[in-house]
Design brief:
The protein is an all-alpha fold and about 200 residues long. Among the domains are: about 30 residues; about 100 residues. Helix content is about 55%, strand content about 0%.
């Protein structure tokens, strides 16, 4: 049966466009997101060719080495781990330094003054009898330092086993002996605890 002219066809339901199901697009940043390689390239310092003059090139190299050494030295004085030599790194070595710096080591710390006095005495008293006496005094001082270092090494080892289980304490007595022989002001890394502090 033919439809009458002018009769409006029944409206068909409009199909939803696939784009209608998508969430509304957020406003962009106005520029595309840079690639990772571009970001890393921007972080790098621009390459500058070394000067043709060998003397100028060596001067620049010395300046760079000097500035790097100064930066490392300042970081070492602050006690930053990355700047410390391998012998000073680790939690056990830090514990040993704090232990030594908190003690008043009269014999070990001020032994250098005693060595100076002994050297003067050797030149002033040149007889064989006096030289033998000075030798015995030197041996006694070395023995006291050894006993003191072994005692403090045993104390630090016990603390390390309690607080840092599994960490190596090899050579800790020798490390303590070397640090205790230096005056407190000249120790590197510098002391970070006060004398008499509880460790």
């Amino acid at each position: 049966m033919r439809r009458r002219a002018g009769a409006s066809a029944s409206p068909e339901p409009e199909q939803a466009s696939p784009a209608d199901d998508r969430p509304a697009k957020q406003a962009g940043k106005g520029k595309p997101t840079p690639k990772r390689s571009e970001v890393e390239r921007a972080r790098r310092q621009p390459y500058t060719a070394p000067p043709a003059d060998k003397k100028q090139a060596s001067a620049q190299r010395r300046d760079r080495q000097r500035s790097e050494q100064k930066r490392r030295s300042e970081a070492m004085r602050r006690g930053e781990e990355w700047a410390l030599p391998a012998r000073d790194r680790g939690a056990v070595r830090a514990l040993a330094r704090d232990y030594v710096d908190s003690r008043r080591l009269i014999v070990s710390e001020y032994i250098l003054f005693g060595v100076v006095v002994l050297i003067i005495a050797i030149f002033a008293l040149g007889s064989a009898k006096n030289s033998t006496l000075i030798l015995y005094i030197e041996l006694a001082i070395v023995g006291i330092i050894g006993v003191e270092s072994l005692y403090h090494g045993a104390m630090v080892t016990r603390l390390a086993k309690q607080r840092l289980p599994g960490e190596s304490t090899k050579g800790i007595s020798w490390y303590i002996a070397k640090r205790s022989l230096r005056l407190r002001a000249s120790r590197i890394p510098p002391a970070r605890v006060a004398r008499g502090a509880a460790i």
